[in-house]
Amino acid sequence: MIDVTREKLELRVQGVDLNLSTIHRSGSGEPIVFLHGFGSTKEDYVDIARQAAFSGRPFIAYDAPGCGNSECSDLSAVSIPFLVDTAKALLARLRVKRFHLVGHSMGGLTSLMLAHEDGDRVLSFIDIEGNVAPEDCFLSRQILSYPSDDPHQFFADFIDRNWGATDFSSSLYAASLRHKVRAEAVRGIFTSMVDLSDHGDLLTRFVGLPCRKMFMFGEQNAGLSYLPHLRENGVTLASIPHSGHFPMYSNPVEMWKRIGLFLGEAEAG
């Protein structure tokens, strides 16, 4: 058995009762906090406990409200600001003061907003294709492109569209969506992602963070328009071969290698 703690933690966020499914490990140094993307779960990151390069490193991962094995008393309340407050509440519960931050997609945007609000606590930030510009809403903008009053029908159609997408690992991603996301949580998540991406000046916020930063992307998305701007402003870029939006599914070996190298450099100063 891997040496981790799995537990449900009860929290109350914005008047909503949560029972978060978490996994964490103690160790020396500041923890790595992982925030998963839409349609994923904390299990995207549990392999850190099996990676020799991260032996002894403390970490925290959890299923966001409306996702995985976490429970939420009001799914309509779930949005990016709600997820930011959830992260703050969990960090307070676990008495975490300073931490390294890794977030993918939805979790990358949540991480960005968290780091923008609590920047003095974030030691480093690895953004794995998290939203920083309107062009990043290729998944979330479907809530507007394919409107539906039935959350279950929208979600079923969303799954079908993504199953046939050309991006690496899209079919693998789509196959498990019904088991990882509650349909009633989708609208609030997607609409807030689109709103922030269109109007939140996210690129400026990201570049302006005081911590060391890396933006990780699949080589399939090497044409993102803002990559030169990130490089010019001191952000480390990590292109993952044979991958699109989901490096943890397409090329996890390279993903973990780049995370380990970056964290080592960040801690070295």
How would you summarize the topology of this molecule?
Elements: E1 5-13, E2 16-25, E3 32-35, E4 59-62, E5 71-72, H1 80-93, E6 99-104, H2 106-117, E7 122-128, H3 142-145, H4 151-163, H5 170-175, H6 177-180, H7 186-199, H8 202-208, E8 212-218, H9 227-232, E9 236-240, H10 247-250, H11 252-268
Parallel strand pairs: 3-4, 3-6, 6-7, 7-8, 8-9
Antiparallel strand pairs: 1-2, 2-4, 2-5
Helix pairs in contact: 1-2
Estimate what percentage of residues fall within beta strands: 15-25%
Report the sheet with the most strands, covering strand number, pairing sense and barrel closure. 9 strands, mixed
What is the approximate shape? globular
**Share in helix:** 25-40%
Cα gyration radius (Å): 17 Å
Helix count from the secondary structure assignment: 11
Order of H and E elements = EEEEEHEHEHHHHHHEHEHH
Let me know the average pLDDT.
97
Class based on secondary structure composition and strand pairing: alpha/beta
Number of strands: 9
Which residues sit in consecutive blocks of at least 5 with pLDDT less than 50? none
Distance between the first and last residues' Cα: 34 Å
Keywords:
alpha/beta, 9-stranded mixed β-sheet, 9 strands, 269 residues
Description:
The chain has 269 residues and is of the alpha/beta class. It has eleven helices and nine strands. Strands 1, 2, 3, 4, 5, 6, 7, 8 and 9 form a nine-stranded mixed sheet that branches. Helix 1 crosses helix 2. The radius of gyration is 17 Å and the shape is globular.
What's the gist of this structure?
By secondary structure, the chain is an alpha/beta fold. It contains eleven helices and nine strands. The longest helix is centred in the last third of the chain and has 17 residues, at about 250-269.
